[in-house]
Write a structure and sequence with these properties.
about 140 residues, mainly beta, eight-stranded antiparallel barrel, about 10% helix, about 50% strand, globular
Length: about 140
C-alpha cells in the first residue's frame, strides 16, 4: 500500500526537484582558447570569473573596453565575475552572464556534457549563441 502512494508522490514532483544538474565547478578553457574561467559556489548559486589568460596580455592588463557603461571600461578583466546567479534548473544551471568581448549581458544556460561544459547565452529568445568549453 505504501509503495504505490510513494510512486504517485514521486511522479508528481517536478523533474528539477528529482535530479540536480552535474557540477560545473572548476576551471574551464573558453572555446577560443584565450582564457580560463573558474566556476565556483557563491551563496546559493554558482558564479564564474576569469582566472587566467592563455594569450599575452598588454601592459597593464586587459580592460573592459566594450562595456556599455563608460565608467566600467577601465576595469581589468582578470578576476572579473562574468557569470552569476546560476541556479539549478533541471539538468542545467540558469542565470546571468556578461561577454567582455562585445559588452553584452545575457541570459545564461550552463551544463555539463560528458567532459565538456556547454554555454548558451541569449540576449533575446531568438538571438542565442552556444559554445563548448574544455577542462583547463
Amino acid at each position: 500500500m505504501i509503495a504505490p502512494i510513494l510512486a504517485v508522490g514521486l511522479a508528481m514532483l517536478p523533474a528539477s526537484a528529482m535530479a540536480a544538474p552535474a557540477s560545473i565547478a572548476g576551471k574551464w578553457t573558453t572555446d577560443d582558447g584565450r582564457a580560463v574561467v573558474e566556476f565556483y559556489r557563491c551563496g546559493n548559486a554558482m558564479c564564474g570569473r576569469i582566472t587566467d589568460f592563455l594569450v599575452p596580455e598588454p601592459a597593464g592588463g586587459v580592460r573592459d573596453t566594450e562595456n556599455p557603461d563608460a565608467a566600467k571600461r577601465s576595469r581589468k578583466l582578470m578576476g572579473m565575475r562574468i557569470f552569476w546567479n546560476l541556479v539549478p534548473d533541471g539538468d542545467r544551471y540558469e542565470g546571468k552572464g556578461y561577454s567582455p568581448e562585445d559588452g553584452r549581458y545575457f541570459n545564461a544556460d550552463v551544463y555539463r556534457s560528458g567532459n565538456s561544459l556547454k554555454i548558451k547565452g541569449c540576449i533575446a529568445a531568438f538571438l542565442c549563441r552556444s559554445q563548448t568549453w574544455k577542462p583547463a
